[in-house]
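Blinded run. Sample ID left blank on purpose so nobody reads anything into the name before looking at the predicted structure. Input follows.
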Amino acid sequence: MAAVPAGLPDLRHAVTADFPSIVDSSHGGEDVLAAQLHAARRILATHPDTVPDGPTGLDARFEALRWFPLPPSCLTP
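Blinded prediction complete.
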């Protein structure tokens, strides 16, 4: 079993050594931010303001604990 990294720099090294493809080393300048914010606003504008809630068909014990909206469509296979 591998040793647990001692700190964040060690963790970054361990991740990049084992999984180099998941750590992107490219960086964009501040000029990229405006385009990213515009894209994010466009994506958010396509989503509804409210989440439909309704019967889920789940166990009553689960429903008694659920405090968050759970659209029935999320449970459809």
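Unblinding after everyone has recorded impressions. The longest helix spans residues 31-45.
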